[in-house]
Amino acid sequence: MRFDVVVMGGGLAGYTCAITLLDSGLSCALMSIGQSALHFSSGSMDFLNALPNGERVYKPEAALEKLKELAPEHPYSLMGAEKTKAMALEAERLLNNWGILVSGSFTEGNHLRLSPMGKLLPTWLSQKDVFWVKGDEKPLWEWKKVSIVTVKDFLDFSPEIISAQLNDLGLQTKISSFTLPDLEILRENPSEFRSVNIARVLDKKENRPLVLAELKKATDCDALILPACLGLNHPSFISELSKELGIPVRIVPTLAPSMVGARINNHLHREFLARGGVSMPKDVATAYTFKDPDAETLTIEKIFTANHGDIPIRPRHVILATGSFFSKGLYADMGKIKEAVFELDLLDYPDQREEWTKYDFFAPQPYAGFGVKVDENMRTFKKGKLVTNLKAAGLVLGGFNPVLQGCGAGVALVTALVAAQSVLAEE
Ligand SMILES: Cc1cc2nc3c(=O)[nH]c(=O)nc-3n(C[C@H](O)[C@H](O)[C@H](O)COP(=O)(O)OP(=O)(O)OC[C@H]3O[C@@H](n4cnc5c(N)ncnc54)[C@H](O)[C@@H]3O)c2cc1C
């Protein structure tokens, strides 16, 4: 099997890179072993919320030079401020072009999104139907009174906590709930009563008018807030409700699994297939060969996978976007951290295992910054040798802490675009 490009990893980075390369006319296969981080995320995309010293960032653009001083190995620092900015703007353009409609802008700076626990957190891009507000530390409310309407007995969303937080921030709130007959089957098993499953029921054509009728009862307010458990299979549902009700309707991510994140992943998958991408779900590389293992630089020749046995894939380029420890792109044995597929060179990390973690669960965890070493074009290295046709992108990279710095999606998107550019430059 011959492909111009094989992408490993079906998360934000893998799909972004794959779709960009397909749009440039390259043939592309994508293998992925499991759900990506998007399925557990807020669905909003962070670019840079804080510097490594903890200083809060409002305008990522203005913070890139300081980031370079403090974290020279951060992917943004490697590629430089100008390129990072260009890639951020390109990512905004592409997401909207692909039909993932997002609000927010790199040039304007971060806005605030509402977390499942009612906290306002900074972020770069939020989907259009998600609850977000302009402002840095203080929200610039457009509304005075909001109604929070939840699904009866839904445990992954707490209107009381959200209401209390919003009251503290100056908004009046009112809480109500509704149910529909079709939800009763799900309700019989509490472990099934989760956002994604509820959305599958509420999104059904025959149920949409019933949802509308229920929400009409709660419209004595300036805006409606709902848990993100509708708008999965029918993404325009929320905007249709806004139109019908005559007031803004916004969704808030629930505890994981995350419908707002999952629908981005589903959407990217559809865009990938629509462009002729070949999907290899649940497949994983089991072995690979280099063309000339003794040469000064290495070039991957064949990849063998679990599902294709002794039939090798012969890619001209490979993109590694397998994520971090969470997605099994990296793993730790007793004495070493390893990149899971090719055992690529990693950025330096402490020899002592005790230094990989901090006992305080909420302290910045050193291991979060471990990952693959790349150059400014996302090219990788093995035992010090350049691997000419293997680029890495996303959370498998090292040099940044996506939790502390709030930069996970930004890194995934911009490094994926740089990896794609790097492939295209070699074509
Ligand atoms: C729980 C959680 C919540 C997060 N929430 C946010 C958020 O709200 N906002 C934000 O900006 N960032 C968030 N992040 C950071 C997030 O990781 C990035 O935003 C981004 O989605 C990462 O994309 P990725 O493609 O690099 O990696 P992943 O999303 O981790 O995708 C990697 C994919 O590769 C697959 N894979 C792994 N190994 C192999 C293999 N050997 N072969 C084939 N496939 C493989 C995995 O199954 C997975 O599908 C969160 C991260 C986590 C872990």
Compose a concise summary of this entry.
The protein is of the alpha/beta class. The protein has twelve helices and 19 strands. The model has no long low-confidence stretch (mean pLDDT 96).
Spans of at least 5 consecutive residues whose pLDDT stays below 50 are: none
- Write down how many β-strands occur, each being a DSSP E stretch of 2 or more residues: 19
When the domains are counted, the total is 2
Q: What is the fourth-level CATH superfamily of the largest domain?
A: FAD/NAD(P)-binding domain
> In percent, how helical is the residue content?
25-40%
Distance between the termini: 19 Å
- Rounded to an integer in angstroms, the radius of gyration calculated over CA atoms is 22 Å
Major beta sheet, strand line-up: 12-2-1-15-19-18
Pairing-aware structural class of the strands and helices? alpha/beta
Q: β content, as a range?
A: 15-25%
Largest sheet descriptor: 6 strands, mixed
Average pLDDT metric: 96
The coarse silhouette is globular
Q: Indicate the CATH architecture of the largest domain.
A: 3-Layer(bba) Sandwich
Explain what the structure shows.
By secondary structure, the chain is α/β, with parallel strands linked by helices. It folds into two domains: 2-104 and 262-426, FAD/NAD(P)-binding domain; 131-252, 3-Layer(aba) Sandwich (Rossmann fold). Helix content is 29%, strand content 21%. The chain has a six-stranded mixed beta sheet with strand order 12-2-1-15-19-18. Strand 8 (145-151), helix 5 and strand 9 form a beta-alpha-beta unit. Helix 1 (12-23) runs parallel beside helix 10 (259-274), helix 1 (12-23) runs parallel beside helix 12 (408-426) and helix 8 packs across helix 9. It is globular, with a radius of gyration of 22 Å. The model has no long low-confidence stretch (mean pLDDT 96). The structure holds flavin-adenine dinucleotide (FAD). The site of flavin-adenine dinucleotide has 37 residues, from helix 1, strand 2 and helix 12.
